Here is the input.
Amino acid sequence: MKLERQFEKELAGDLRQETASKLQEARKKPANFKELKQEIENKKELPQDYESWNSVKEGFEILKKNIIGKIFKTEKYREQEYLLSEILKTKKEASIKEIQEEYQEKFNKILEDCPLSKAEREKYLSTESMEKMSLDDYLTLLKRLSGEAFYHVTRYGVRENTFMSTGGGHTEGKGNFINSFNPLLKDGNINSFVSSITRDSSRAKSLLDDNKEAIEKLKKEGKPTEKIVDEIMGSLGSMYFLDRESTHFSYGKDLHRMYGGEKDYKFYFYYPVEYILQNDFFQKTRETQINIGQGYYHNRGGIDQQYNDIEIFNFGKGVPTEAGILCITGDIKVDPETGSQYLLKNGKPEIDENGEFKKPEKTISSKEYWESYFKIHPELKPNKIIYGEFSTSTYKSDPELEKWAESKNIFRQNQEKTNEFKEYAKINRDIIRKIFTNILQENYTDQEKIK
Here is the structure.
């Protein structure tokens, strides 16, 4: 699918015709002395637009008067002829480029002013279409969308970016090498916390291992397994409905500085808001946080958007990675063996005498590393990658988008749908409870069982 060509035919027929005529005239212009001379002989004068180019006019006059040079093709004559031809060639190319740029600017404005119709949304914004779409077509389609987007950061490398929030610390794995990126590519979906555990119970084991001291303390206090599970579930729960059953995104910009791994080494997925709203996804924002379509990225308290507080729910299916654009910083100097900016030993960065992370002596660019990696592992390579940052945003209020987003808000669904949400949450929390119970029972020396 070549969307640009298709949209040109559908939306810019008159502009294409007008531009084609301009290009046809521009391509007739002389690109060397011989062609200019022929044109002058036909028109009996220097073309008017060349009169304004003193270098062309003067160069032509010099060559015309240099009869001896013309006859004997002297070195000076050949040099003057070459210089004039270069000027003519440059002028012709500049004229063609100017026409093409003017066309692209006007065409982009047409796309911006022609939002997708309902039928076009169904055609182009379906998950199947978005997954199959090439990067070029994807970027063309974005020109007909609002510019509002969701971002999901993932980690590859030593975790340096951490932060504290009102809900607690986001510091897990600080100073360690963390790779949540490759497993995400392998899975093919950005999953919720709940889905991650129900699909792979080993993740629950890892979670409990990270909290082993707290669990051992509860065991020493004589807490039965059931109560310990209650504690675990309580720590994983939330006052926000479907918080753990949703996939979390930021809105308006990527939040690598909060959730990413190594400093300035970004890995994130980009999704236009309209893709989420068009499909079987439901969204919500936390109280006092920004709302989609309002044209600003601050919460009601005036604080810049800083958390992954847009929650996307679709009954555990996850958000397909192929439906978005993967963005990787491409100019970071990394170890060719690991892809990290730092020297690693046993999963941790080596420390120098100043307490800083050591950097490898031999490096390649991060783009080179991942291009090589994807050649070796083509099955993991997404079909839309940008090596660098990519973002779109608008500070314009969009009532239509805001209304559309409200219609997909979790809290604005009918009772039947709300009951579906609640039943899904109940079933999956029961599944997680069972997973945690089984893991904890295996750690009890008396093999205590829960009825």
Remarks:
- The chain has two domains: 3-114, 147-192+246-412.
- The longest strand covers residues 267-272.
- The CA atoms of residues 291 and 330 lie 32 Å apart.
